[in-house]
Write a structure and sequence with these properties.
By secondary structure, the protein is α/β, with parallel strands linked by helices.
Length: 191
Amino acid sequence: LVALHREQLLQTSALGLTAAGATATASYGRAGEGKTTTAAALIHDVHVQSAFDFIVWFTFGQERRADQALRSAAEQLGLSDEAVEAGVKRAERRGERAEAALRAMISKRVEGCDVLLVQDDVWTEEQAAAYAGIAAARGRVARMLTTRDHRLAVLPGAAGAHRLPPMGDAEARELLAQHCTGEHVGGGGVV
């Protein structure tokens, strides 16, 4: 029953993320219940990969901040460290926050592209909001979030938050074997 539920969730999420106009999916559950494994299987789904020009993954945990996620996204999308630092310094000289400058640079980079931004193991509201405001003119930005806290799993544009049941080791291995190629490729694939 648990495996069937998770497989249905994967299919529903994959279909939802690949549909035109879809913007978000989120899952929540206790530690070790397979949120990250399920998200990894989903981004390796052939339909999800073919629906996005870029898939960006960032794992938060308790200590990581929104600016770190934004810098990681910029790097995964091919923005150079020099360009990012120059853009942040210009924004700070104008009295703007670094996060706003990073979101603007990322939005400009993904113009005309379809992008999936994955926020794994989110613990705080600040982390959940890290990618809010990133937009792709003539493209689409979708978000996927995993968290232990159901209150953080509410994303604008999401069809709803999915509560994941516990996953055993055997089920996790089977899920990854069925859905993951193990390949991580840039531009047109998983980053």
